Amino acid sequence: MRKNILIIGACGQIGNELTLALRHRYGNERVIASDIREGSENLMDSGPFELLDATNHDALEEVVAHYEIDEVYLMAAMLSATAEKFPMRAWNLNMGSLFHVLNLAKEKKINKVFWPSSIAVFGSTTQKEGAPQSTMMEPNTVYGISKLAGERWCAYYYEKYGVDVRSVRYPGLISWKTLPGGGTTDYAVEIYHRALADKKYTCFLKEDTRLPMMFMDDAIRATMELMDCNPKNLHIHSSYNLSAMSLCPREIASNIQKYIRDFEVVYRPDFRQTIADSWPSSIDDFQARNDWGWKPEFDMERTTKEMLAHLKNPTNK
Ligand SMILES: NC(=O)c1ccc[n+]([C@@H]2O[C@H](COP(=O)([O-])OP(=O)(O)OC[C@H]3O[C@@H](n4cnc5c(N)ncnc54)[C@H](O)[C@@H]3O)[C@@H](O)[C@H]2O)c1
After folding, report:
1. What region holds the NAD-dependent epimerase/dehydratase domain (predicted)?
2. 126 and 180 part of one domain
3. Are residues 159 and 188 in the same domain?
């Protein structure tokens, strides 16, 4: 199908890989990357790029009209750890950009929206193991509050205005192409970089802090499969639970030690420990498996092999 796609926040950890995957599938010229900063060489060279601030409604509307955009993937956000330092800026970015995009869809200027939520929507009153799709949700971070509010607005725009907006609650994402952007699970990427660079890592979470995680290839495939799905099969219009692995720093470290024997990790928890402690350890993604056939492909062994192999030979970023 011929369609034009806009990625907002395309230079971040997910946006970079998502843009490249969508360009591979739909053609470079049809996938417009945008961000407030320039991205990787591969991203900048492979197709159109616009400098665009997602909180600027008029600029966004202009880009949508200029490229005759059909679908928007809104990846711009302030993540959990950074948002605790700048609460109002985080709220304004995370909510303002979502409203701009939802309103463009409501006005029929675009047809379909992808907006990511996060496991941060859960809080300390949510059950720790196998957090269900619908459950007690009392997030106590600025980021989590903005994601939960965003989910409710997505469901509202679907119900009241028929907006086709789709969403997943991403777990912590592990990737080698782009560094993470200020989240509580960033350690799970940094640990591989430090293991290869100097065989030492100081982890900002306790060794036994278990959190839901996923390798980036699975996250990109989940996103594209959800966007491809027949809308009749979708029963969740807020955001789908999405799961692959449940990992703690000690497990990742000992997995890496299979390849780098003298790798050492020191644990020095900081303010991010409190955020991590408020999130579930694992997620029940029955609804995603049931509605659109979601199935992860990467476990920890495979993730570690991919991370170490690609970080040793960082080609094709
Ligand atoms: N990475 C994860 O582990 C994870 C987990 C759960 C949810 N998410 C969600 O997925 C989305 C993308 O996350 P990410 O990890 O790629 O984040 P990131 O921080 O790596 O990237 C975000 C991008 O948005 C850009 N940006 C910031 N302000 C902007 C603005 N005003 N206008 C346009 N662009 C702006 C940044 O320059 C950056 O390139 C976010 O909504 C995030 O909350 C990510």
Report:
1. 5-228
2. no
3. no
Has this prediction a pTM greater than 0.85? yes
Q: What ranges in the chain are assigned the alpha helix state H?
A: 13-26, 41-46, 57-66, 80-85, 87-106, 142-161, 187-198, 216-228, 249-257, 272-277, 286-292, 300-312
Domain assignment present for 288: no
Residues 78 and 204 in one domain: no
In a domain, 317, yes or no: no
Residue 11 clears pLDDT 70, i.e. is over it = yes
Average pLDDT, integer, range 84-101: 98
The pLDDT-based confidence of 183 (bands split at 50, 70, 90) is very high
- For 256-271, how does the pLDDT look when each residue is reduced to its tens digit (9 = 90+)? 999 999 999 999 999 9
Q: Which amino acid is residue 207, in one-letter code?
A: E
Using most ligand atoms within 8 A of CB, pick from 85, 170, 241 the residue to mutate for ligand 1: 170
What's the pLDDT score for residue 2?
79
Residue 143 catalytic? Answer: yes
What token pair was written down for 246? Answer: 């449940």
Relative orientation angle of helices 249-257 and 300-312, to the nearest 10 degrees: 60
Average pLDDT, rounded, for the chain? 97
- How far does residue 9's CA lie from ligand 1's centre (Å)? 6
Measured from the Cα of 170, ligand 1's closest atom is: 6
Residue 251 in domain: yes
Q: Which domain holds residue 101?
A: 5-170+216-241
N- to C-terminal Cα separation, the chain: 27
Asked if the model's pLDDT at residue 316 lies above 70, the reply is: no
Instruction: Classify residue 261 by its DSSP letter.
Output: T
Asked if residue 30 is part of any domain, the answer here is yes
Residues 234 and 200 in one domain: no
